[in-house]
Amino acid sequence: MKQVIAIDLGASNGCLMLVKLEDDHITQEEIHRFPNEIVEKDGHLYWNLQMIFDEIQKGLKKAKGKIESIGVDTWGVDFGIIGKDDLLLDRPFSYRDTHTVPVMEAVHQNIGSQFIFETTGVESAAINTLYQLKAIYGKHSDWHEKTDTILTFPSLLNYLLSGKKRNEFTHASTTQMLHSETKDWDTTLLKKVFGYIPKMAPLHETNTLLGETKESINESIGKETMKVIQVPGHDTACALAAIPRINRGSAFMSCGTWVLVGVEVDNTVVTKEAFEWGFTNEGTAEGKYRLQKNNMGLWLLQQSKREWRENGEEITYEQEAQLVQESEPFRSFIDPDDQLFFNPRSMVEAIQQFCRETNQAIPTTKGQILRCILESLAMKYRWVLNRIEFVTDTIIPDIHMVGGGIQNKFLCQFTANATQKHVQAGPIEASSLGNALSQFIALGHIKNWKEAKQLVEDSFGVKEYYTEEKEKWESAYEQFKNILQRKDF
């Protein structure tokens, strides 16, 4: 039996999963989970890196038996700046900090956003590393000279574990700083944006050995030395790698706080339509690309339920399901990706404001809010998939959904209804599973990704969802598109 630990960090929680490979069968066991929350200081939003790293070590201590290796994957775009004393210049900023918005606008005045898209394959968004770093260096003019290297977030954690300063392709592809053809840092673009080339750590090949845990870490957690594997650093790349049945042309949806909807492509798709519709191209575990759109996901539900909980009105999953079932369908819609919902003071009030501004029935009950969110999410995923079919000149035959969000059966069923496509859901912990598969490949226990996907299919089942009430959903989709037009989407 071979054992590895997948350290899988999302924007709302982190998880350490013990993954075992024995007799051509894979099993997963969650050994530690912890909340990951943004902290505010001096008007800015940061990640509590020390807490995250402490929790990782707590989880590693819990692991039983011999652990051969560990690997880290996280959400995209965020990073840390290491000084010449090998310490962080400051805690890592969160992508939800809005200090990047004016910076992005200034960059686009000098360099067209379409040119940047065509070069990097990445949609321009204020959260991207390019604009974050520009904002930080603009505020701290001396930091460039103080910088030893810049590490994307999973590579930052790898550095704390192993002492190795190397970035990784899939996560680097989210920064909007990587050239899509060379698959290396775009020094020409960076010089245009910064006037110099920021000190990004070089890339280390994915699915290979990076190093070993430092002696200080081994002593802290009471474990023997473990190999540190350079797994796909971006959690969506890990999730895609773990999808067992995905066929050429099938769509994938990685469902969590965000929902990433896309298809695999050999090369970046940077057409005029892809640019105008906000698509992005990010790396895969196999060195290719996934053409996708980053969409709002369960953040809307999470924030609404948190708001109710803080008001003493917490609901269980069973109550949530009953409220959705009892609520009138198609009563009102929102555009889940409207700026209103990015980080509002009150998610419930933001939803009501959107409906008011678009002359719809205003949801007031919990059931109406929940149903509005879930139906709107499913409708937006159809909107995205229709445009993927256009820019790739293909018909998507089916959808494979993975991630924690698939535990919400309404999200899966409504997606099948709205898109009118067969949906296969599973596995739930896809990111940690893809992380572990990469480790087994690097260690030589699995030959390649084809064999890895077969192992997943043999070890984990999927749940099937088929389209229901086709005509009603088709009519409701026309209603939804009219709402988008009212907001001048």
From TrEMBL:
One of its GO terms (molecular function) is ATP binding. Residues 4-240 form the Carbohydrate kinase FGGY N-terminal domain. Keywords: ATP-binding, Disulfide bond, Kinase, Nucleotide-binding, Rhamnose metabolism, Transferase. GO terms for cellular component: cytosol. GO terms for biological process: glycerol metabolic process; rhamnose catabolic process. Residues 252-442 form the Carbohydrate kinase FGGY C-terminal domain. Belongs to the FGGY kinase family. This is Rhamnulokinase. It comes from Candidatus Pseudogracilibacillus intestinigallinarum.
